[in-house]
């Protein structure tokens, strides 16, 4: 079995083929028969897990396992405590409330230069927040920050569970260590059904 982490660059598809000629995972991890666990939007950056372990891929992609993903998000404006608390409680997206998230304001963040700079507005400051979620709704983080009045300018996934981006630069990948693979398999191991025990009288 093979397990890789990739720092997906901006404007790369989280798939291995594209009929329109856009960059895909194949341009960065030319390993046959591996697949991404979940997705990361074309205009987002950061950590993607790839494997040919189909059982693990299925289990980690299943929402019931609730694997936590950590995002560092550059937004318009500076969210106050009320906005952060809204994210923590969950926000309404198309009539459906998101599950509670972990959210906090970050200090200065120094990432690599993006291939296309973000859009700055001279009269509006920007800030970085950390958001941790275990849901997987379409473009969820972007919709969440917009719902509290702070549109996303840049989004970088920095961790999947205990797997972190570390020193990986955009386009770089590495194999997981044996210990990392064991932790993933343990996390995704099906739980035994509850069996009540009765004392004999």
UniProtKB/TrEMBL annotation:
Q: What sections of the sequence does the record tag as coiled-coil?
A: none
The alphabetized UniProt keywords are:
Isomerase
For this protein, the Enzyme Commission number is 5.4.99.-
SUPFAM superfamilies in the cross-refs? Pseudouridine synthase
Query: Ranges for the Pseudouridine synthase RsuA/RluA-like domain?
Result: 2-147
Which family, according to the similarity comment?
Belongs to the pseudouridine synthase RsuA family.
Q: What is this protein called?
A: Pseudouridine synthase
- Organism source for this protein? Nibribacter koreensis
């Amino acid at each position: 079995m093979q397990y890789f982490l990739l720092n997906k660059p901006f404007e790369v598809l989280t798939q291995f083929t594209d009929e329109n000629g856009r960059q895909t995972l194949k341009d960065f991890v030319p390993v046959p028969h591996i697949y991404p666990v979940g997705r990361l939007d074309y205009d987002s950056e950061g950590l993607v897990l790839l494997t040919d372990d189909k059982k693990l891929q299925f289990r980690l992609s299943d929402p019931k396992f609730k694997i936590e993903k950590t995002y560092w998000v550059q937004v318009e404006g500076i969210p106050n405590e009320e906005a952060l608390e809204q994210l923590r409680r969950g926000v309404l997206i198309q009539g459906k409330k998101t599950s509670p998230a972990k959210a906090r304001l970050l200090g200065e963040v120094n990432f690599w230069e993006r291939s296309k700079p973000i859009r700055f507005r001279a009269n509006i400051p920007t800030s970085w927040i950390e958001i941790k979620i275990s849901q997987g709704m379409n473009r969820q983080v972007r919709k969440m920050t917009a719902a509290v009045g702070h549109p996303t300018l840049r989004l970088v996934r920095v961790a999947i569970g205990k797997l972190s981006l570390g020193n990986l630069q955009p386009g770089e990948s590495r194999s997981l260590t044996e210990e990392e693979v064991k932790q993933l398999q343990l996390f995704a191991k099906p739980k035994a059904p509850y069996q009540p025990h009765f004392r004999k009288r």
